Amino acid sequence: MKKALFLDLDNTIYPVSSISEYLFKPLYDLIDEFKNEMDKEVLKNAIYQISRRPFHYVADEFHFPLVLKNRGIELLRNMSYGMPMKAYEGYDLLKSIPINKFLITTGFSKLQWSKVEMLGIKDDFNEIHIVDLEISTKTKKDVFNDIITRFNYKIEEILVVGDDPESEIKAANELGLQTFLFDPDDKHPNTMVTYRHNHLKNILNYIN
Ligand SMILES: [Mg+2]
Question: What is the distance in A from the centroid of ligand 1 to the CA of 53?
């Protein structure tokens, strides 16, 4: 019997693609200023990754010029989202599961909190943790560990739900926690997970 769900936010509770065009426009414009300094293919891939992974990681991985990385971070640090947002189908079912839920998301505090607000999901969670690389060196793994200790959970009582093999899924695997990979487009067929599905409602099958 599961006692708690650890949920990711971006691309787990709502699709980033639904807000990225508007949200990342200023960032894409900024990157465009540097297009002559970077390889076209690399840039295209980097822009795709920006909607899926934290900007810091993308900037490092694709060797963004330092000035671009710093200006991008500055932009994102002050960004918030103020338009209506819609959760994935199945989220309503998920939130009605009568066990403790924790939202653990990586990103810039102001922006992540604005998404929580626009989705109207604040009260669905016992705790909300923003892992903000600007403020702290704490990782998702640290936050998972901290919750487990404070709530005295057993490892088998937790299910970690997320979309990113390099983030929450990796942290969960390192701690021996069970995982539910939400993979609507079958992007990660080879990732080591406990369960994988293309619909959130299937989580209901794995909490007993
Ligand atoms: Mg995610």
Answer: 7
46, 129: one domain = no
Distance (Å) from CA 36 to ligand 1 centroid? 30
Q: Give the single-character DSSP code of 35.
A: G
Residues 56 and 32 in one domain: yes
Tell me, what amino acid is at 136?
S
Helix (H) or strand (E) holding 4: strand 4-7
- Distance (angstroms) between ligand 1 centre and the Cα of 13 equals 8
Query: pLDDT at residue 153 above 90?
Result: yes
Q: Do residues 164 and 8 touch, judged by C-beta distance below 8 A?
A: yes
Are 9 and 28 within one domain? no
Residues 44 and 33 in one domain: yes
pLDDT of residue 54: 83
For 11-31, write each residue's pLDDT tens digit.
999 999 999 889 999 999 999
Taking the C-alpha atoms of residue 52 and residue 158, their distance in angstroms, rounded to an integer, is 25
- Angle at the Cα of 60 from the Cα atoms of 186 and 35, rounded to 5 degrees: 90
Residue 39 identity: D
Is the pLDDT at 52 greater than 90? The verdict is no
Judge whether 32 and 100 are in contact, CB under 8 Å.
Answer: no
* CB distance 75 to 27 below 8 Å: yes
Question: How many angstroms is it from 35 CA to the middle of ligand 1?
Answer: 27
